[in-house]
Amino acid sequence: MNSTWFRRFTKTVGDGPRLVCFPHAGGAATAYAQLARTLPADLDVVAVQYPGRQDRYREEPFTALAPLVEAVAGELARGVAAEPDRPYALFGHSMGALVAFETARLLARDGVPAPGRLFLSGRGAPETRPSPFTGTFDDADVLAEVRRLNGTAPSMLDNPEVLEMVLPALRADYRALSAYAWEGGEPLPVPVTALIGDGDPMVSVADAEAWRAHTTGAFDLKVFTGGHFYLNDHVAGVAGAVTGGLPALTGRA
Predict the structure, then answer these.
(1) Which of 53, 89, 123, 180 is most buried as measured by Cβ atoms within 10 A of its Cβ?
(2) Three-class DSSP labels, the chain
(3) Which has the closest alpha carbon to 50: 21, 89, 87?
(4) Known catalytic residue at 204
(5) What is the C-alpha separation between 171 and 24, in angstroms, rounded?
(6) What is the pTM of this model?
(7) Which of 214, 236, 213 lies closest to 224, judged by CA?
(8) Identified catalytic residue from 94, 121, 178, 204
(9) How many angstroms separate the CA atoms of 136 and 21, rounded?
């Protein structure tokens, strides 16, 4: 896997199925460090590092989803071609769920072997929720939304030096989300697990349930206590949902 685009957070590389994780808006690959270390060691867990954050901060972040999806899908296609016998699955949270879903659609269009499952967390199906930002929005709007979702420590948002580092990626990601529009498409022949916090102010359980219409395969819905970033408090539960959703890939019943 291309070291520019993907990060691992375990000391060894599992020889089993690969789980590719997509971060939320403004997020980085490290958002999945704890999950990677909690999942079974035989899985190969990699997290996507979008441009414009952490060790890629000097790169311009994408301001539209389509070119980001094309770039990630291209890297994944090369990885699948290099290890054709290794099954894989995609996990995305919030914006990452949308990127994972669109990546799976693009891979299917290009004839790349499909992922064994999609894990779509903290995001409703694409037709259920328009962007909260239409037209012009500024940093204050973006920061207000980040505070509302309670995924970043207030002390970080109040630190000018930290804001200078994270705002370019946040601006770009929210601009990309504001421009995204679902144009319809056939459901994927890929099983889907939707995950949601029961107190998420952005996504309802019904919104998460709507992912069912986007697969011709099996569908499962996992509801956890908590808000938009419920997974920070339920790493073991999320890891269990992942391993429970991959019996055909892992060989576990």
Answers:
(1) 123
(2) CCCCCEECCCCCCCCCCEEEEECCCCCCHHHHHHHHHHCCCCCEEEEECCCCCHHHCCCCCCCCHHHHHHHHHHHHHHHHHHCCCCCEEEEEECHHHHHHHHHHHHHHHCCCCCCCCEEEECCCCCCCCCCCCCCCCCHHHHHHHHHHHCCCCHHHHCCHHHHHHHHHHHHHHHHHHHHCCCCCCCCECCCEEEEEECCCCCCCHHHHHHHHHHECCCEEEEEECCCCCHHHHCHHHHHHHHHHCCHHHHCCC
(3) 21
(4) no
(5) 13
(6) 0.91
(7) 236
(8) 94
(9) 30
pLDDT string in tens for the chain (253-residue length): 778 899 999 988 888 999 999 999 988 999 999 999 999 999 999 999 999 998 998 999 999 999 999 999 999 999 999 999 999 999 999 999 999 999 999 999 999 999 999 999 999 999 876 655 555 567 777 777 777 777 565 556 666 676 677 788 888 998 899 889 898 899 999 999 999 999 999 899 999 999 999 999 999 999 999 999 999 999 999 999 999 998 766 544 4
The domain segmentation of the chain, as residue ranges, is 6-248
Task: Tell me the two tokens of residue 128.
Answer: 């259920």
Bridge partner residues of 90 (DSSP): 20, 118
End-to-end CA distance of the chain: 29
Looking up tokens 């328009």 gives 130
